[in-house]
Amino acid sequence: MIRKAFKMKLFPNKVQEYTQRHNPIWPELEDTLKKHGVTNYSIFLDSDTDTLFGYAEIESEEKWNAIAETTICKKWWAYMADLMETHDDNSPVSKELNSVFYMS
User: Where is coiled-coil annotated (predicted)?
Assistant: First the structure.
């Protein structure tokens, strides 16, 4: 199992809409994540900066990266693009974070 952490940025005043769209996420997207080896996926918000902190446990980097090629993921990105910073393909601008401490 690989622990993955990353941050993303919401546009101002988009927290409520972002939260609503995730509760619940589309069942097909959740199924895709699970089929690609993703578990314990959480997203947290720093409300002072509208920065999102994502944490997921993944089976492999290869399976994680393959999610981006699925139709449902691309549809989700398009659905969320008006709420957050994105690239031209609607994928979220994301900064991977490095682990500096872990206790199990």
Answer: none
Q: Which CATH number fits domain 2-97: 3.30.70.100, 3.40.50.620, 3.40.50.880, 1.20.1060.10?
A: 3.30.70.100
- 3 DSSP β-pair partners: 57
Tokens of 12: 């101002």
- What is the pTM assigned to this prediction? 0.93
| pLDDT tens string 41-69 | 999 999 999 999 999 999 999 999 999 99
- The set of long-range contacts for 68-72, using a CB threshold of 8 Å and a minimum separation of 24, is 70/32, 72/26, 72/28, 72/29, 72/32
Q: Which residue is catalytic, options 22, 34, 87, 95?
A: 22
